Amino acid sequence: MADTEFDIIVYGATGYTGRLVAEYLDSHYGSSDNAPKWAMAGRSQEKLEAVRDEIGAPANTPLVVANADHPADLEAMCKRTKVVITTVGPYQLYGDDLVAACVKTGTDYADLSGEPAWMAEKIEEHQAAAEASGARICFSSGFDSIPFDLGVLMTQKAAQERFGAPSPKIRGRVRAMAGTFSGGTAASLGATMKAAAKNPRIINVLRDSFALTPGFDGPSQPTGMVPMYEKDLDKWAAPFVMAPINTKNVHRTNFLLGHPYGEDFQYDEMMLTSPGDAGKKMAEAAAEMMKNPFGAKPPKPGEGPTKEERENGFYDVLFVADNPNGGDTLHFGVKGKYDPGYGSTSRMIAETGIALLSSDAPGGIGTPGSFLGEALVDRLQEHAEITFAVEN
Q: Could you tell me the pLDDT band of residue 196, with boundaries at 50, 70 and 90?
């Protein structure tokens, strides 16, 4: 990576999530000798100064003014840094020019996109150019989809060690979660639904588990959309709103790494409720909520929970891996402190940006799992209070 003025620029630092990323970088790394050189970026100098002061960052924290509507601004910004972390979504509305600028300048990029149709479009447009320039374009670097993408990667590592072969089928099951989805996630879903109404092809992308693996169409996958009783767990399982993006990223990681999970790998995600009739009713209610997952008043971009709510949040995900030889399954857990949509997500994307600085992965459009793998797992366990562990 060529020398640049900065290591990391946080683009969208005046927004709710961007401010949390900037606050994390300042409070966690500060001005230590090994701290990355980072800057805050947005469209307003005045707002950047206000956020800098609000989060208690030093007065000399660099500020970069760049407007998402001005491609020249974005290209100039990219030339000043090794990595751009962007929280400016929905990315299908505001992300095109920044991705293009990063690809052109060979600048690494991390975002929070949970927009598979847009991601598939960017892969088609920029994969070859990103490979040529060396830019690593890393989508979905927050709660969607890091705990699931890296959770499957580490579960397969454990399966290989225990069984001598990868697991042919893994179930991702959210056991518990406290906190909120981000306003950006809600806005992204809304933008995707509006786009799908105009372009029916997008519906096909959303339904296709292999929409992000161009040229490869794997086996039929469980839908995860029908409530079901899981005897081995003695729980009912309900649809999980983020499964349509997480499952695609898991398959893309497998695809980009040369199918270490196997070409016939199956994966699905659901949420666990309770056993018995009460659990069944909860699962059926959750399935009904999938028609409008964020309710009548979804969170808006720029809004978010209080500091206390963020700190009291958590999530707990179980991965159940089938034994390729028959016999007992393997259980692997991923647990995170802080609410998933903001507190933990801001830490995850910040650590993704830092991990990219020392990665030797080739350029292209990938995933946290394919670019960073266990190196990012180590960073998240050391710095972001996320644990990855075999449970049986």
A: low
